[in-house]
Amino acid sequence: MFCSFSGSIHKPKNAIHQKIDNLENLKNEVEKGLQQGWSRQEIRRKLLGEGDRFRFFTAGRISKQNLFDAFLISKGIERYPGEPWQKEDL
Fold it and tell me: 1 lies in a domain?
């Protein structure tokens, strides 16, 4: 298998399982942050870091905020309590 970011992947099945595990762990951490009352920005920064170069290169279509929002939507939360969606978050 070939990855445009990492090049050739010799054990693609293992890599896919590892990616799934990482996303599940990230989802669990998002849920913990929600339970602790952290803001969307706090959770995103703590779990995904500050920078977001893909947001720039993809005109916002691929971004850390979109990944975070997808976790919220998967939990049935369309808007974070007390915080409206902001245009720059989309």
Answer: no
Write down the H helix ranges in the chain.
12-35, 40-48, 53-57, 64-74
Opening angle at CA 6, ends 5 and 8, nearest 5: 125
State the Cα–Cα distance between residues 47 and 72, nearest whole angstrom.
14
Cα first-last separation, the chain: 32
- How far lies 53's CA from each of 23, 27, 35, 63, 77, in Å? 19, 21, 29, 8, 26
Whole-number pLDDT of residue 87: 46
Task: Supply φ then ψ for residue 7, to 5 degrees.
Answer: 85, -145
pTM value is 0.70
Which residues constitute the domain of residue 31? 12-79
Q: Which residues contact 22 (CB under 8 A, 6 or more apart)?
A: none
Examine residue 4 and state whether it is found in any structural domain, yes or no.
no
